[in-house]
Write the structure tokens for this entry.
Amino acid sequence: MTVFLLRRLLQAAAVVLVMSLLVFLGVYAIGDPVEILISPEADQIERERAIRALGLDLPLWQQYLVFLGRALQGDLGRSFVFNEPALQLILQRMPATLELAVGATLVALVIGLPLGLYAGLRPHAPVAKGILAGSILGFSLPTFWVGLMLIMVFAVQLGWLPSTGRGETVTVLGMRWSFLTRDGLAHMVMPALNLSLFKTSLVIRLTRAGVRETMLMDYVKFARAKGLSPARITFVHVFKNILIPVVTVVGLEFGGTIAFSVVTESVFAWPGMGKLIIDSINVLDRPVMVAYLMIIVLMFITINLVVDITYSLLDPRVRLEGKS
Amino acid sequence: MSSATAGTPATSPPQAAAVETPFRRFVAEFAESRLALFGLGLFLLIAAAALLAPWIAPQDPYDLAQLDIMDGRLEPGSPSGDGRMTYWLGTDDQGRDMLSGILYGLRISLGVGAGSAILACLVGASLGMLAAYAGGRTDGLIMRLVDLQLSFPAILAALMILAFLGKGVLNVVIALVVVEWAYYARTVRGTALVERRREYIEAAQCLALPTRRIIFRHLLPNCLPPLIVVGTMQVARAIALEATLSFLGLGVPITEPSLGLLIANGYEYMLSGKYWISFYPGIALLVTIVAINLVGDQLRDVLNPRLKK
């Protein structure tokens, strides 16, 4: 297990390094770094001082090492627009994105698992076909457009739910959360539903496929022959076994959900990281872009790592793979 | 999606029909699904409408001389101020006929989608083929790149590329190619690795045919079926991604509006109940994507030997 962990950690570190190089090249090689990193209002003397301070007179490989060193210390530059450290700016908005992503994941599981289970147990029932068709639609529908339609129906025409923003928040552990207030929850319903669209379809399909496959297994036949109740077979023997792939994919998709929240946050003006990055791109606030990209990369690698480790705990074959 | 198909039990191999050519059999099998035929018909109709937009659109939405600002934000079915035409799908804030705007928008959306898919296919298939044929370190390097690309969400990668490159139709195509080539590379490599061990490749190698000929005339044609399936699905994906990027204001420029940009333009009017500016372009987008996916689903069933009845 230790060897497996070490190997995975090393791999993860290597990917972070590669991605930091890509980000570095992206910002520093495309376009003039002076233009990118020094505020356009600076005069000639300020510019030269900044060039020296930022080490832009050094050769490229040395600059990369400096960039890397600063990044390791958590210094990813200051936002031109907010004049705050970029990292801090993003971390401030992270709770909003996280709660939205968690909310969307919960919605996907709560809706997707039962529907997928039903569609898998009764594949030929008309309702099951409807569920499957719905999941295909969920893959096809452009998320941002569905978001707009949700606003149109539930906020503009019916007036049931607020259209944009985060609503009332409560500060817990120094971070502002919406899900703890009634108003905040009301604001969260539509964005979470919108963000979960793709994921719900995915959970439905995975669960359905898993159930259909598992129902044919010998141990299910044996359980049935033993005279166990259908409910026990479904929820203990089948359900437990299909949870592994579903949990893996949902876990892996969590990163994707955070990435895709860029779209949902823009539609619903949800003040999270995604909205921040879109605004930053529109005003060319490059330090924030770099910081966001590095945080997302780290997040992805951590998620992959956690999923891998969880997987190896659930299924010993994974960690023994390299040994035999 | 692959896990969903993997769940379907494999059935016995197909019975070879006597005088049928493979292509005829493919057509016959494809036509078995009415839904897929419907999708194909719908797609052809949409493609034709997009191609013929300058001739069938009621007005040229980008000829400012034809627009009347007084006709702005009219409801669907309203007659134009000068009484010459009816705005069946309403008008936007500039007094532009939405139907014409959608027809022209489809041109950009389909063009970007198909163009990026073809380019990504060329890049991805070449690299995948190279990985499979060369093996060893080349294979390792290419596949690590593929893994890296696929572990990162397409929307974010495209967002970042466009943030660095700026808006523009060509830039969107570049971004889409960068985020999509990996799917093709993985698909081609997987198939090519299997095909390469077959006897006909061995025979070709024994005949001392040049490597280029073996790859392009023998190996590649046999890797086409899965490539076609992935390609179809990726066109739909590319169209959706382009629409999303344009909606976020990072995709196509305002002078060449795709469906995504049309939807974005209607966003601010949505809250005042003027739904049609965003609604109809969205429907056009949705119908296009669903039509392509219906075709793709059936292609996958027909071209996947594991699912053969």
In short: Chain B is about 70% helix and 0% strand.
